[in-house]
């Protein structure tokens, strides 16, 4: 009896130990899974107060007004690349940063096969022309005999048909010569306009074809400043209107004109793309420079609280309203929650927040489409 009771107690203890170990194992797995779950990286910024009463200033990107990718049309191995002399006198392949004029041969594909095809096409043309000359002579003789009744009508028709057939053969041979000559000319990749080399993607010995992009060229005698304008300010931008453009890299300002306004807003940034064309004869403005453009003159209404346009999201509680993600806590790992806001006028890349947020609050500006209310996130610089 005592032994039976001891066995029961031992079984109960064993079951309890197994259950405890299982619970600990599951808890450990749960913790490991939780620890392995990556946090969404976001960027944040403080809610600001700005002074109004000046024109809305937008950040723009300087781009070449004309830029092309030059691809080869003839297949083959690259035989040569244009050679230039650098600042210290050494000869090298043309590369990014070099200036080329219209018609400059940038690279050449091996031409042996194409020259042979051209020679064959010319030989066929010579043969076709000789055949046509013989046919014309025969037709001339038969025509003279037929005119005096010394030749039959079938003989006249046969020689006439032969002359016409050989004439068509000459035309076909000429077309083949032209085609072969064009293919030979396409072995040379030429600059279509005066431009700067932005990129070179090939070297001597590279096997190229119609899909091979050899060079990227840009004409910067005119450039365009591209920037985004929200819908609340797009009415103040008119095609052809003059705009002043400034850069941090260069002193003074540059004058340009609005040449393009996108018909639809970007679905992510919710702004319209505007292009301002600027004459750049001295090549002072470089592709990739950051510029500033001021649009219109706002009314003087004092100081307003603003948030970046990229921080604004649709409100989950009000289909017609807007909200932002506010951060809670300090450090690199924080929790976010949505906060409905009332929006006002735009000021460049910022928009007035009339209610819902206070200065010094931090709002999420990047990554808003990957998080939801209550999520824990990781702040990145």
Summarize the structure.
This protein is of the alpha+beta class and 381 residues long.
- What is the alpha-carbon Rg in Å? 38 Å
**So what's the CATH class of the domain at 40-52 and 301-379?**
Mainly Beta
The total of helices stands at 3
Rounded mean pLDDT score: 86
The backbone outline, from C-alpha atoms, is elongated
CATH architecture of the domain at 40-52 and 301-379: Beta Barrel
Helix content: 25-40%
Low-confidence stretches: 1-26, 28-34
Counting helices, strands and paired strands, the structural category is alpha+beta
Approximate strand percentage: 35-45%
Order of SSEs: HEEEEEEEEHHEEEEEEEEEEEEEEE
What characterizes the major β-sheet?
9 strands, mixed
Report the end-to-end length measured between terminal Cα atoms: 73 Å
CATH topology of the domain at 40-52 and 301-379: conserved putative lor/sdh protein from methanococcus maripaludis s2 fold
How many β strands by DSSP?
23
